[in-house]
Sequence to fold (431 residues):
Amino acid sequence: MTDQSLPETRAPEADAGAASDTSGGAAREGISRRRLLGTAGATGLVLGAAGGAAGYAAAPAPATPLTSLGGSEAMFHGKHQPGITSPMQAVGHLVAFDLAAGAGRREAAALLRRWSETARRLMAGEPAGSGDTGVAGDAGPSSLTVTFGFGYSFFGRTGLEARRPAALAPLPDFSADRLDASRSDGDLWVQIGADDALVAFHALRAIQRDAGKAARVRWQMNGFNRSPGATAHPMTTRNLMGQIDGTRNPKPADTDFATKVFVPQDGSPAWMAHGSYAVVRRIRMLLDDWEKLSVTAQEHVIGRRKSDGAPLSGGGETTPMDLEKTDGSGKPVVPINAHARITRPDQNGGAALLRRPFSYHDGMDADGTPDAGLLFVCWQADPLRGFVPVQRKLDRGDALSRYIRHESSGLFAVPGGAAEGEYVGQRLLEG
Ligand SMILES: C=CC1=C(C)c2cc3[nH]c(cc4nc(cc5[nH]c(cc1n2)c(C)c5CCC(=O)O)C(CCC(=O)O)=C4C)c(C)c3C=C
Ligand SMILES: [Fe+2]
Fold:
């Protein structure tokens, strides 16, 4: 397999010289520029569309006119699957499937082959195939990514227990968990992200239709992020509590980024080389309680300023947090149980993870409380060196825990990217 970690950027002639992408990360993340489809295509509008909701996985890119959104294309083939280091998109669908009764390894292999071909086509802005619904007919690829993962139960269903990664062992129970089993886990997991809602829905529907009789939807969650170009300048996105969220994510340019996020080439099991593990948690925000707090109180819960995300010890968003700094009475200015203090790798034996969430809002409960929060998705080379130690710490005494509730959970092995002509998971299913 050739190293496809640096896919060629597709820059149409009309865009040459116009793409003022200062991120330097677009090609690295597998994002290319693509001529806009339809009437907007010829005017050189495709400028830095990879900016996405900057602040999580990608370096900021220049602010872009919304009209360029459709032209941005992420690469399906590559060393890693798309949707991990790709810039966060405006719309997301997370879906878990269970294999149907009687479906085993053969049916699963055929399904992954179908899904991979559909994902490849749609990410390139092509129709899904002969039965295309036409929903995204006039849109460009809009940074669509489709990412596939395997849950613990998949291996039992397909007789592949011997190949189940040790890292996929069920997550431990946490005392604050209030998990709904029907919205947790699953044999297969698909993450869809796009900067256009119709493009994302179109992909979701194609993936559901491809499942045919082989698998059925176990649960589905729909999320969103800020749309690229919505702010005057690229900035880290905000969550539904209003906080700037994503500042201290590992950056692809960090020397140890790959070690933290991806299974190494010679990692175990071999079929997971260049893959990653996704922890998915539906975390409800108790917004009625949160919004009653003063801004100062909210800032003490997190340990950072609400306006600009700067640490309470001073400076700007990216200024290192001074954990030792005290106020006049000798109290730490960043409270001991502040969320951004206790989640730091240096407070957790080096544990690190790449957060790439979507916000969600599923309406109101009967009692009038909003069902809204974070579809927390984090990526790591090993959950025991990422999510688990950090969540253990949070479970013991995070100031934020009074204002959130973990309602569902999943852990998925996401294999490396498919080479040209391969499908995702082929090395597991045919190796
Ligand atoms: C187990 C891991 C984590 C969960 C669950 C989690 C939930 C959660 N976080 C916020 C808001 C913020 N988190 C911030 C930082 C931060 N959070 C985690 C981990 C989990 N968060 C880490 C590893 C970090 C970075 C720590 C560091 O390296 O310094 C911040 C501060 C800004 C930032 O760095 O992103 C905010 C804000 C919410 C609302 C939430 C659940 C709903
Ligand atoms: Fe956090």
